[in-house]
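For concreteness, we quote verbatim a single protein encoded this way:
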Amino acid sequence: MRHANRLLEEATRTLAERGESYGSPQPLFENVAKRWSLTLGVGVSAEQVITCLIDQKLARLNSSPGHQDSILDVAGYAAILNEIINNNGGAYGA
């Protein structure tokens, strides 16, 4: 579990750094959801945006399973997804 703990610690540091630079991630992902909704012509939630970004990273990992940045990104996006779901009262996809 040493490597897993190190990854989660790095993800935590990265999220903190991004928070200092860009603020809370929720408004960003809500904005992306609005833009994707216009582009796609269907309603897209912030949670769905994050799920799609995780999926993109998983597709990259399928080609390069050891790519540490993608693994770190999956952990970070999962943490943000968890935060947004809990801030929205668990209303995934609402």
